[in-house]
Amino acid sequence: MSEFDYDLFVIGAGSGGVRASRIAAGYGARVAVAEEHRIGGTCVIRGCVPKKLMVYGSDFAHGLEDAAAYGWMIGEAKFDWNVLRDFVASDVDRLEKAYTSTLDNNKVDHFHERAVVIGPNSVRLASGREISAKIILIAVGAWPVLPEFEGNQYAITSNEVFGLPEFPRRVVVQGAGYIALEFAGIFNSLGAEVTVVNRSDQILRGYDLSLRERLLQIMQARHIKFRFSSPIEKIVKEGNGTFSVHTEGHQPIAAEAVLVATGRKPKTEGLGLETAGVDLGPLGEVLVDDYNQTSCPSIYAVGDVTNRVQLTPIAIREGHAFADTVFGNNPRTTAYDCIPNAVFSQPPLAGVGLTEEQARTQLANVKVFTSDFRPMKNMFAAVPERGLYKLVVDADTDKVVGVHMIAPEAPEVLQAAAIAVKAGLTKADFDETVALHPSMAEELVLMR
Ligand code: NDP
User: Fold this and answer.
1) What are the residue boundaries of the FAD/NAD(P)-binding domain, all occurrences included (predicted)?
2) Could you tell me the distance, in angstroms and rounded to a whole number, from the CA of residue 218 to the centre of ligand 1?
3) pLDDT at 2 over 90
4) pLDDT tens, position by position, 387-427
5) Range of the domain at 224
6) 1 pLDDT above the threshold of 70
7) Are the C-beta atoms of residues 427 and 398 closer than 8 Å to each other?
8) Mutate which of 149, 179, 196 to test ligand 1's pocket (most atoms within 8 Å of Cβ)?
9) For ligand 1, is residue 259 a contact (CB within 6 Å)?
10) Based on the domain organization, do 43 and 131 belong to the same domain?
């Protein structure tokens, strides 16, 4: 008999926690997981999945507009927010069940309550029950940060946006990162008046500059307003469900919803990690080594709570590597180079590897190839929006070190390009590849 109730106790049933639980259980470990919200975590319940469904839902607006050029006579089209919201919610329910079945099928016990650490090998559930485990995995993720300003209780975050009781006719979005621009696009396409306000004078800090400029130009052409260097000072509640949003140096903006998307912070507050001597960083992130081990040898952490790269596929890889290392006798780390990423703005933006700006500071000689094109589908429907692809090449080795694109379906194209960058293929390899015609993706092999 083991001296512990479980071999592994996981706190947080999101992408990282569920993967780690399943793989560890597959190695024969006795595993339990505690989740205070819903099984599936941010990505499945209130992040990537419902967001992508809303992007799909909202993008029909443009398809309907363009359809006439292709001979479709469509009467007056009406959008019903309640239908989209409720279908998205039911799909999230379906996925939560699928994730729960994964735990059940792998004989992982699950507790639907908050758990906190009370020592190197013990946790306490909200019900008061104490459980011991040889290893504890912290996979509690991150939580939206709400900046301090008067009336911030009237703002919503990405946690609440999927459940809005009514469609807001006017929306103010604070922030100009992933979440802000994705939702600005969704609400704009669905017919709301959208104003994006940001504290700095740029969008998507860190992304390739030419792509950011192109996205800003298209979003403005789609009538999304931007107020830069103008963070929210206060929100005043007016009558009829309207808010007055005051931002630095401007007239107040009237809106029915104010979405704040100013980053996400590791969710370690009150988790009791100090009782086990787990070191935290300045944002509350759990500090770990390459094998996801914390300063307390029996406690590990994966995913957003470590604030390394806040992306689902990375949390999954870290969770898998943790389980292989600790329970599968196969020590594994996670590679953080060449992580493909996308912003599901409209149009979307996607990239992998070094941006042009990064390459110019890190490499001796850089060559950049671009294709600035009007997608055939846009041309036919008289939509002026242009796509932009960029290849960043190390001129000394001819290796393609970065691919960046903004265009319809860019994330779908980028995933394949990421294989080439990860594999270290050269610009000559790209040139040798026959174009797939007619497609947007063919631009990738036609840049000279
Ligand atoms: P981001 O870090 O992407 O953007 C934060 C934005 O908020 C920036 O524009 C920043 O301004 C602004 N900001 C930051 N702090 C403050 C503050 N105190 N007051 C006012 N403005 C502020 O965060 P998100 O919330 O959009 O997303 C969080 C993370 O979730 C992302 O980093 C990403 O890892 C992940 N995510 C990924 C998605 C994807 O892969 N498609 C989709 C959604 C989320 P500035 O920097 O200009 O000063």
Assistant:
1) 6-319
2) 20
3) no
4) 999 999 999 999 999 999 999 999 999 999 999 999 999 99
5) 152-262
6) no
7) yes
8) 179
9) no
10) yes
pLDDT in tens, 204-261: 998 999 999 999 999 999 999 999 999 999 999 998 899 999 998 899 999 999 999 9
User: Ligand 1 centroid vs 180 CA: distance in angstroms?
Assistant: 7
Is 342 touching ligand 1 by the criterion CB < 6 Å?
yes
Query: Could you tell me if 10 and 126 lie in one domain?
Result: yes
- What is the percent of the chain with per-residue pLDDT over 70, rounded to a whole number? 100
Question: Which CATH number is 307's domain given?
Answer: 3.50.50.60
Looking at the fold, whether 366 and 223 belong to one and the same domain comes out as: no
Closest residue CA from atom 24 of ligand 1: 263
Give the bridge partners for 32, in sequence order.
Answer: 9, 109
Q: Strand ranges (DSSP E) for 18-108?
A: 31-34
- For the record, the structure tokens of 99 come out as 């994730």
Note the pTM of the prediction, 2 decimals: 0.96
How far apart are alpha carbons 398 and 175 in whole angstroms?
38
Domain identity same for 92 and 50: yes
Q: Which of 244, 262, 280 is the last residue of a domain?
A: 262
Residue 117's H or E segment, with its range, is: strand 115-119
Q: Which of 46, 258, 262 to mutate to test the pocket of ligand 1 (most atoms within 8 A of CB)?
A: 262
Tell how far the Cα of 144 is from the centroid of ligand 1, in angstroms. 9
The number of distinct structural domains making up the chain is 3
Dist CA 349 CA 409 (whole Å): 9
Least confident of 18-27, 66-75, 314-323: 66-75
CB of residue 199 inside a 6 A radius of ligand 1: yes
